[in-house]
């Protein structure tokens, strides 16, 4: 399921991407309007279950205070080009994972936000090589997205902020998962 206002070429691009992608409306509660098959595989939720809902559904009752603050700052500041942060998420069946979330805005030619673009990657069980492959794939996705979006009068904002230390990110993810033994997550 998807929003019919998403240009066909952009929808096709999303479905063909090797990384999990989501597209949300830039207003109200940022409802999801498009997710690709990789996103569905990662989360266990179908496109129909997610359409019109905020990605917060993936957080269940996890506090995620630091990540939420970063995401809120990005969403509240129209001039912030992008954000990248690990955040504790849960699959549909309740399995926890640490999502390395990347978000940026796709804008109309007049500068108005058209969509919130997001990519997700499970770093909780990732080896450094897989994370580097994801970084490469996301970088290529963003590079290929620009001309596809431009055909529909959409500008891709921001650039990929590379991870300086993949091993540190994976260690942070493992610590977050270890914290799930804390009763606050149960």
UniProtKB/TrEMBL annotation:
It comes from the Bacteria. Residues 6-78 form the PAS domain. InterPro entries: PAS, PAS-like_dom_sf. Keywords: Chromophore, Flavoprotein, FMN. SUPFAM superfamilies: PYP-like sensor domain (PAS domain). PANTHER family: PROTEIN TWIN LOV 1. This is PAS domain S-box-containing protein. It comes from Novosphingobium mathurense.
């Amino acid at each position: 399921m998807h929003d019919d206002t998403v240009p066909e070429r952009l929808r096709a691009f999303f479905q063909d991407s090797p990384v999990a992608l989501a597209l949300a409306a830039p207003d109200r509660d940022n409802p999801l309007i498009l997710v690709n098959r990789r996103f569905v595989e990662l989360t266990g939720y179908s496109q129909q279950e997610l359409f019109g809902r905020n990605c917060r559904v993936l957080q269940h009752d996890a506090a995620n205070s630091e990540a939420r603050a970063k995401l809120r700052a990005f969403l509240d500041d129209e001039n912030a080009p992008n954000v990248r942060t690990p955040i504790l998420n849960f699959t549909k069946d309740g399995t926890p994972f640490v999502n390395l979330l990347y978000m940026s805005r796709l804008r109309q030619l007049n500068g108005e936000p058209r969509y919130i673009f997001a990519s997700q990657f499970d770093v909780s069980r990732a080896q450094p090589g897989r994370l580097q492959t994801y970084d490469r794939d996301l970088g290529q996705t963003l590079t290929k997205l620009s001309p596809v979006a431009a055909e529909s009068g959409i500008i891709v904002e921001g650039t990929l902020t590379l991870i300086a230390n993949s091993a540190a990110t994976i260690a942070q993810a493992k610590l977050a998962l270890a914290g799930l033994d804390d009763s606050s997550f149960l």
